[in-house]
Amino acid sequence: MSKILDQTAEEAKDAVAKFRPHWAELPEDKALLAEKVTVLTECAGGRKAAAKAMSVAETTLDNYRSGKSQPKFLELLNLAQATSLGVGFLAEGIASSSKVSSHDANGSFLKLPFFAAEAAAGFGRIALEELPAGSVAFERAFLRSLGASPDNCFVMKSRGDSMQPTIPDDSILVVDQSQTEKIEHGCIYVFRVSDVLLVKRARWHMNGQLELSSDNTTYQPEFLDQTHADTLSVLGRVVYFCRVP
Predict the structure, then answer these.
(1) Other CB atoms within 10 Å distance of the CB of residue 69
(2) Which tens digit of pLDDT belongs to each residue from 87-111?
(3) 3-state SS class at 134
């Protein structure tokens, strides 16, 4: 991951200085989030480009940068994805109030942001908690061996039994947000349906239909024609999962 260009770094520092007075009375976690949104906004190309990436109004983005309100889960991921920093930046602290932190692309380990939003391996679960709740460290080489883009990965939980025996209930998922453009046959993805996140295995059929199936055969698969498959909202591909005993 390349460092932030000098000009962008200066613009980010100027923006941080502009919005910092708004963060004085905020709790530490919300102030840090507002600062990250401010930095990511400049790295995404400025206010207009960042708002477009998040699919929000520019005034809404201003509220996020000032800390008056907080971005939703998908808005935050989309903003990070629109920059050279990637979603891994969300797990980092800001080095200092006067210096924009940058990624250590050569570090052996990478802290992936952990989101409390849950993907349903069942009938559906509303993603209520939407802000980063911490981080989980993974080795970059390990993530690459899985075919993942390390700086575009994040961690979330899976709830339900529809993907058993492959993915047990209460599993931790590593999701690669860079793998959303092309749905690969046989791979497991996190899909968004309204405010619900679903974990399903994707299977293509000869007639062009996309099957979203559960590994637990008690759940019936769903089928989408090519038109609906093209408009399906894909959060990312599940590249790794584990369960804490």
Answers:
(1) 12
(2) 878 877 643 333 343 444 556 888 8
(3) strand
Fold (topology level) of 109-243: Umud Fragment, subunit A (2.10.109)
The per-residue pLDDT for range 3-32, each reduced to its tens digit, is 444 456 778 888 889 999 999 999 988 898
pLDDT of residue 151: 86
What are the residue boundaries of the structural domains of the chain, listed by start?
Answer: 6-91, 109-243
Which pair of tokens denotes residue 180?
């959303």
Residues 6+ apart with CB under 8 A from 138: 109, 110, 112, 150, 153, 174
| Structure token pair of residue 245 | 């005993």
The owner of tokens 């992936």 is: 112
For residue 230, give the 3-state DSSP assignment: helix
Overall pTM surpassing 0.85 (yes/no): no
pLDDT for 73: 81
CA distance 81 to 118: 20
What backbone torsions phi and psi does residue 136 show, to the nearest 5 degrees?
-130, 130
CB 103 within 8 A of CB 88: yes
At which residue do the structure tokens 């903003």 appear? 79
